[in-house]
């Protein structure tokens, strides 16, 4: 296993003559994932590269199960059925097709403990999946360390869903690559060599800066939106509290008015009772005086009655004496 910072070469797809020469002369630890069953080419590579790692499963951008189409010429094996290729090779026969497990490049490298190694050179001979694979690898940052890139393509779409040469090169240019050379032993299968555009690094820095600014703007917008939401919530709360306070104030004022009215009513009742008490007291005093006067008169009458009874007794005694004297 190479050191974690040792650059590697990755080859995906059929091993054709041009790519075989590149693999043998690159002098880099090499990882290959091919749809062919060519043990002779793999043995040749084992004898000519510093370290060779062979994937157990085909490589796709998503790592899902796929259908492997195997043809009478194994270098045309693919993960999509042929379309325009039949026009170039009318005698090409599909031997069989079967469902196979595929891995992402990241998972395949990790299986060989190569996931930390920077990819310095990349060869994609898997025509039907080259575009999607490049876009996925760029999005994952796996192309950032590339110094060289080769892609096999064709002026026509040879497999279902395969981009044409112009479409694939346009994608590469969008990803920051420019054409260095093309190898066209077979004009229908052109191996295009590309390198990073010198302005790509500066472009990526500006792109990252723009992404950071966009993220800051989004965060600021989110913060502002959150603040506006909080302000709106506080405003609603304030309005609700103001309404509640107003209602409570009205209720308190009503209760205060009612209590004031009840107090005034009680005060009037107290004054009335005081007046009644004073009148009753005056009446009681008058009755008391009348009772005292009546008592005095009664006492006087009693004395006069006693005097009258005494005089009557005296007269009775005198009459009795007279009667006795006359008898």
Give a summary of the structure in a few sentences:
This protein has 327 residues and is an alpha/beta fold. The chain has helices spanning 17-25, 39-46, 85-88, 105-111, 130-139, 165-174, 200-326, and strands spanning 8-12, 30-33, 52-54, 66-71, 94-100, 119-124, 148-153, 177-186, 189-196.
Instruction: Provide mean pLDDT, rounded.
Output: 88
Which CATH C-level class of one domain is it?
Alpha Beta
Number of strands: 9
What is the topology, as strand order, of the major beta sheet?
Answer: 3-2-1-6-7-9-8
Note the main sheet: 7 strands, mixed
Helix- and strand-based class?
Answer: alpha/beta
Give the SSE order as H and E letters: EHEHEEHEHEHEHEEH
Looking at the overall shape, the CATH architecture of one domain is: 3-Layer(aba) Sandwich
Note the gap between the termini.
185 Å
Strand fraction equals 15-25%
- Helical element count? 7
Shape, per Cα inertia axes: rod-shaped
Alpha carbon gyration radius: 60 Å
Considering DSSP H and I runs of 4 or more, what fraction of the residues is helical?
A: 40-55%
CATH topology annotation of one domain: Rossmann fold
As residue ranges, the low-confidence spans are none
Write the layout of secondary structure elements.
Layout: E1 8-12, H1 17-25, E2 30-33, H2 39-46, E3 52-54, E4 66-71, H3 85-88, E5 94-100, H4 105-111, E6 119-124, H5 130-139, E7 148-153, H6 165-174, E8 177-186, E9 189-196, H7 200-326
